[in-house]
Amino acid sequence: MQMFFQAAVSGILMGGVYALIGIGLTLIFGVMQVINFAHGDLVMVGMYAAWLLFSHFHVDPFVSILLTGPLLFLLGALLQRGFIQRVLGEAQENQILLTIGLGLLLSNTAMLIFTSDYQLLTTSYSSQAFSVAGVSMSVPLFFAFIVTMLVAFALYVFLMKTDTGAAIRATAQDREAAQLMGINVSRMSVLAFGLGAALAGIAGALIAPTYYIFPQVGHAFTLKSFVIVVLGGMGSVVGASIGGVLIGVVESLAALYLASGLKEAVVFALFLLLLLFRPSGLLGRART
Amino acid sequence: MTALLELKQVSKTFGGLRANWNVSFSVEQRSITGLIGPNGAGKTTLFSCITGYYPPSSGEVLFQGQRINGRRPDEVCRLGMVRTWQKVRPMAKLTVLDNVMVGALLRTWSLKRARALAEEQLHAVGLDKQATTLAGALPIGQRKRLEVARALATQPALLLLDEVMGGLNPAESNEMIALILTLRTRGITLVVIEHDMRAIMAVSDRVLVLNSGELLADGAPREVAENPAVIDAYLGKRVES
Amino acid sequence: MSSEVQTVARGAKLSLSAGQRVGVLVGVLWLVFALLPFFVTKPYLLHMGVLLFLAVIQGQAWNILGGYAGQHSLGHAAYFGLGAYTTVMLMEQNGISPFLGIWLGVLVAATVSLLIGAITFRLRGPYFVLASISVAEIIRLLALHFKDVTRGAEGFLISGVPVLHLGPLEIDFLGKRPFYFAAFVVALITTALSYAVQQSKIGYYLQAVREDQDAAHSIGINLQAYKCLALVISAGFTAWAGGFYALFVKFIDPDTVFGLDLSVQILLTCIVGGIGTLLGPALGALVLVPLSEILRNPKGLVQLGLVASDSSVVRVIEERFSNAHSFVYGLLLVVIILFAPEGLFGVLKRLLGPARVRQKA
Fold first, then answer.
1. Residue A219: count of CB within 10 angstroms of its CB
2. Do B13 and B34 contact (CB within 8 A), yes or no?
3. Which residues contact C345 (CB under 8 A, 6 or more apart)?
4. Three-point CA angle C303, C309, C315, nearest 5°
5. What is the pTM of this model?
6. Rounded to whole angstroms, how far apart are CA atoms B13 and B37?
7. B26: which DSSP letter?
8. With contact defined as beta carbons under 8 Å apart, do A206 and A107 qualify?
9. Which of A92, A158, C152, C285 has its CA at a distance of 20 to 30 angstroms from the CA of residue B167?
10. A112 and A104 Cβ atoms separated by less than 8 Å
């Protein structure tokens, strides 16, 4: 029973980070209906950015999100403006292929620059843990979870309480209508992609102390974030938050009760079931 | 003589929304039945229910005496009932001829025979010259005709036309009306959804009026046109014939 | 699909359309490839040839589902791997001849594909793509996990290929040549099959499904049946290529034969060449295979005699660009999607121009 709680708690903590990645993806999908296959690679960029800032300038990864966030925002905006914008009207299959290509470019550029060596970002607290009621929690993951919730909350407030946020939501709900109402939908798309990338980058910085950093690390996140987005409902920020935590827990429990090597397979199986029986997810709008 | 198509208290609900409610009518062979009603009345939904796009929530759909509830659209088409789409669906990257051949291939495996059949239909709707044009390049009027030709190629007994007049100029409309009338001489039964009242009056033997999912009236065109309930449904618009 | 041959009225000169000119070009190349082993002895060249033909087979197979029917599967590695592992496991663990085993691999993949189709074809567009990835990943992870059966990440090494007895013929699969010819023939067969499908009711129906599923459904096409048909054919040939690959390279492991990288590669072959076209997979393979081989094994350039063995080119590629082929894949994808979505076939058609008509004064 103890092990169950341990696994569940670790899963929740990790799930928080997953949630952040998922929120980024769901934002992009909500506003542009683009399925961003490069999303995990954006997380990877965030991880490397945090690692560079730490190893060269001794910036703590948690502090670095003040830099990685905006940096990834810029990268996202550039990708949107330079590439994604051009295929927005076309078949979704083409969009997928484009983002796959962009992802490959990102991960391979990283490999060119950093080689495929595994890097470690070891802070003073990287391997620290504390116990609550017999359950051990990793310090960096715990704080990552806190920060994640704060960031997610900030985003929620932004979307709900600001004019720009409302414009983004309007674009996500009905692009044509939003355009007719005078909203600059291209700018909203750039914003959405930038925000999505920023969230991915921040998530990357947050888990940098606890993960191996290497060019291909993003791929696992990409697929997982799709599951999260579908689970929570495409376009639903709250849904992605809950979905992320759920997936974290499922993965953790699967590793405990089945086998570490099969935990991802369980997530994929869950994904298939979702796609078949509840494609609109837990909280999402039904797709027409 | 059994009716070709018969609906018995067909209803279709989506969650709480009643798209069709208790609709009953029958369609005789070789007749042309008009189906009218304000926007959102449930006309296209009815077509989708009848042709198997989704099953009715309750009630029965009988085609040639057989109950066809829950049959797939392709099965319904094979039985002899085919529909066109309100928002035209040309297969854009195929040529006009190839589009119609897809329809014709329902009844044959031979490309040669399918091609011959398709060319006949193109001739019937007046699209001969566009045979090698990509369907995606056609203007709306020709797309509508392509849609009809493709449906005709499946050699249906019953053709359901969904606002085939929409977006056509008066000259094109007249041509379409003429085409519809020739279809009857070919032995094809028709149910026609239309907003163009003039067209409905010109072709229909009988008119059904749908409003908020329910059948409001069912009778000869003139009766229906002067039915006060119908007039009300259209917000006091007097129907000229 | 309609005839593209245009006849000039006067003088009755037969002009070929651009598409047919590309076809002639490719036809000539096929001829060159057929005769190559008689003039060339460098084994590395033949090796590349085999990989090229395998890519064509996989491409043509994928194209039937992805190009004609428009279902962009990113999980075809599942079938490749099933073919590879079935062939190898039956040979090493059950003593079944690989010449039979490879066909059993096809059977396994075809059966599994029916199951996968039943599940995933309810999904459309990107959801189908995601589902196809998930299925392949599940299979890969299972293969990695059940080490007792598949030897897991260690991979499976086979000792050799037995002699093939075809009636009076005895074919010894030593060296590259027998593989070269076998792969060449099957590549031709799959291309011919693709042509046959294209020019048949099945081809028309699949393309209708691609263009508009609901419209296709309403004019009498059984969506599930035809999509599954395309998938079974596609999976079968992909599995054959997998089994052949295993026998040729003699070593397989889950990440290589079940990996997403492979699925992307197959898809890329068709995209680069021209998706949905008959010659697309061949053109795509012609570009991608040499490119990725050289980038993966720059020493091959030495073996081909193109560069000296101490050349800096080899060193540079090995040290800095060890993943260059993957980078190039990404670049190609982006460039093709943005600037030439019709692939190499489209580009060549434009270059070889429309039929020129010479008119007598």
1. 18
2. no
3. C19, C22, C273, C274, C277, C279, C280, C283
4. 105
5. 0.90
6. 18
7. E
8. no
9. A92
10. no
Closest CA to A71 of A96, A90, A52, A56: A52
Distance CA C303, CA C43 (A): 9
Q: Which residue in the set B85, B101, B111 is minimally distant from C215, CB to CB?
A: B85
Residues of A with CB under 8 A from a CB of C: 35, 83, 86-87, 91-94, 96-98, 100-105, 107-109, 111-112, 115-116, 215, 219, 223, 226, 230, 259, 261-262, 264-265, 268-269, 271-272, 275-276, 279
DSSP 8-state symbol, B95: B
Asked if C284 contacts C60 with a C-beta cutoff of 8 angstroms, the reply is: no
User: Quick one: which of C129, C273, B80 has its CA closest to A35?
Assistant: C129
- Where in chain B does DSSP place strands (E)? 5-14, 17-27, 32-36, 58-63, 66-67, 81-83, 158-162, 189-193, 206-211, 214-219
| Gyration radius (Cα) of chain B, Å | 18
ipTM of the complex: 0.92
* Count of beta carbons in the 10 Å neighbourhood of residue B237: 12
Residue A207 has which token pair? 């888990």
- Residues of chain C in Cβ contact (below 8 Å) with chain B: 1-2, 199-201, 204-205, 207-208, 211-212, 214-223
Phi/psi of residue C48, nearest 5 degrees: -65, -35
Alpha carbon distance C29, B187 (integer Å): 55
Q: Length of chain A, please?
A: 288
Encoded amino acid at C90, one letter? L
Q: In Å, how far are B9, B20, B203, C23 from B25, measured between CA atoms?
A: 8, 13, 19, 57
Q: Which residue has the tokens 């003593």?
A: C95
Alpha-carbon distance of C288 to C304, in angstroms, equals: 17
User: pLDDT for B36-55, tens place per residue?
Assistant: 988 888 999 999 999 999 99
User: For residue C79, what are the CA distances in angstroms to C116, C158, C195?
Assistant: 11, 20, 22
Using CB atoms, which residue from C2, C204, C220 is nearest to B74? C220
pLDDT tens track for B140-197: 989 999 999 999 999 999 999 999 988 888 888 898 999 999 999 999 999 999 988 8
